[in-house]
Design brief:
alpha+beta; seven-stranded antiparallel beta sheet
Length: about 120
């Protein structure tokens, strides 16, 4: 079974018009589509001008590099958290997946994932 780690940063998920007042550093993810520009960043680095924002997220990271041939990794984690009634916000990088949960749900999320066989 996969191992996860809890990252220490407090995160914000927001929608922005532009990134002109965001200085990339620390932990951040940018998602851009024809419909919106989204940013996940450390709360203390959130741009002042946001169209919408949701504070209070913590991140769980799948430890190590995952091969592209792996299937069901995110589905398994999301399923265990869904069974525990814990909403998530997921992002992926080239190497691994990050699952964000609200900080008030973090302890419950860790326990649900341990119960499902994930290591920490």
């Amino acid at each position: 079974m996969l191992s996860l780690e809890v990252l220490p940063q407090l995160l914000t998920v927001c929608k922005v018009e532009s990134l002109s007042d965001f200085t990339p550093s620390g932990l951040y993810f940018i998602g851009s589509t024809d419909a919106e520009l989204s940013l996940v960043c450390e709360t203390d680095r959130t741009p002042a001008a946001t169209l919408a924002r949701e504070d209070g997220w913590r991140a769980l990271r799948v430890v190590g590099t995952m091969e592209f041939t792996l299937t069901g990794v995110l589905a398994g984690i999301a399923g265990a958290l869904a069974d525990a009634q814990i909403p998530i916000f997921a992002v992926s990088t080239y190497d691994t997946d990050y699952i964000l949960v609200k900080r008030e749900n973090l302890d419950r999320a860790v326990e649900a994932l341990k119960k499902a066989g994930y290591g920490f």
